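Narrative summary of target 7.
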Amino acid sequence: MRKAQWSIAGDERRRRWLVECHNSGYVYNMNSRLTVAAHVLGMIAFCEREEGRGVTSEELAESVGTNAVVVRRVLSQLKQAGLIDSRRGAGGGSVLARPASEITLRMVHEAVQDDCAEFIGRHASAVGQECQVAPVIASYLDELYREAEEALRATLARVTIEQMSLDVMQRLRSRHGSQVA
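Modeled conformation, tokenized:
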């Protein structure tokens, strides 16, 4: 993914939050659909809390650094899961359908991932059956990856969108001082 390009005319406080979100550990480390969805929800939570408004798909796309079509696809999945709503008119756009404190990153993952999606890729095809070691290695790695994925799901279940958004704001304030609201 390319980095977002920030407009000079944009709100400085929001721009700094977006850059911090982009640079934090919450963004670009996992499957891209989860990453885009978490970023989108964090941005929506920020704009609702700090600016009292919804966020357009164009703003979200600029923030994430992707095409608005990709963002709309993720927004559709989040809406279907009951995590966001749409608001028309001034201050409209996407808004949270429930408090940010009630939305976990695991819920976000479940909303945007295929049922059989894995965090860690497996062998793309059958391993060499003529090799005695290959199937044992594949089985070993599958077990190890399943354990790691369950640990990751448990971690995602403990992190809410509110916590992520507040953590990003705290990091932003520590970098830029009190000039950030």
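DSSP finds seven helices and two strands in the chain.
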